[in-house]
Amino acid sequence: MSARNRFVRLFSRLMTLATCFAMLSEGVALAYEFHPADPGGSLQRYQYHVDITGQLSVQGEKQALNSPLQVQAEFTYGERRADDGTSATELRSLRFYEQARAVIRMGKQIAITRLSPAHQLVRGRVSGQKLSLLSPHGPFTREERDLLDVPSDSLAMTGLLPTEAVELKQSWSPRPETLCLLLGLDEVTHPAVQAALIAVEKNIAQIELTGKLTGKVLGAATAIELNGKARFDLKQGTFVDWS
């Protein structure tokens, strides 16, 4: 390579560095892209803890009977995507539950539900706004179906990601189909929900989900106020955790 060509290449690199430095000095915001991991990638491991407390009210002949209600559930499983990754509303996965257990306390009564060993292998499917979990080794019992029907399923979380690059503090509106999946609703009406990129540190993006919505489940109207957080690994293309 001639001295002239080396000078031209060096000058070009210096100009590129100078341009980047000038952009940072002027405070030009960086935009981050959210790409889910390749469906054919490594196995992802998830762990859930669900803790619900409240009052169970049953209408008696003369007055309502109230009993304290507490639900504590633990889920641990590994999951691998089984779709081709071309659609955010048509997803497939195969997962194996190492643990799926719930303890329900109603007054002085205690009920414990577990996933049977025969049903630890589960096929997951998202189609539109419906999430289906099926066992290749026979149908679940009613108790097992209720046990696995938890909000914010890992397969549904992908729909929360923005479809375009976003800057810090920028927000976007999740699709109604995604909100149905995340909250276990049959229908979402009048959503006023926003997701926002709050911070990025060491390739970990912090997302906040806030707002209100109305919807229906089993024909009954419901109103929900959201205040959730999630962390997404921009390099690995997977959610680290959410709450």
How is this structure best described in words?
The model is unreliable at 17-26 (pLDDT under 50). The protein is built from four helices and 13 strands. 18% of the residues are buried. It is 17% helix and 51% strand. The strands form three sheets. Strands 2, 3, 4, 5, 6 and 7 form a six-stranded antiparallel sheet that branches. It is globular, with a radius of gyration of 23 Å. With 243 residues, the chain is an alpha+beta fold. The chain has helices at 3-25, 142-148, 154-157, 176-183; strands spanning 31-32, 44-59, 64-81, 90-106, 109-114, 121-127, 130-134, 166-167, 171-172, 187-201, 204-217, 220-233, 238-242. The protein has one domain (33-242). The N and C termini lie far apart (58 Å).
Throw out a few tags for this protein:
about 240 residues, alpha+beta, single chain
Short description:
By secondary structure, the chain is α+β, with helices and mostly antiparallel strands.
Mean pLDDT: 83
Tally of DSSP β-strands: 13
**Major sheet:** 6 strands, antiparallel
Proportion of β residues? over 45%
Q: H/E element string?
A: HEEEEEEEHHEEHEEEE
Count of helical stretches: 4
Distance between the termini: 58 Å
SSE class: alpha+beta
Whole-number count of domains: 1
Shape type: globular
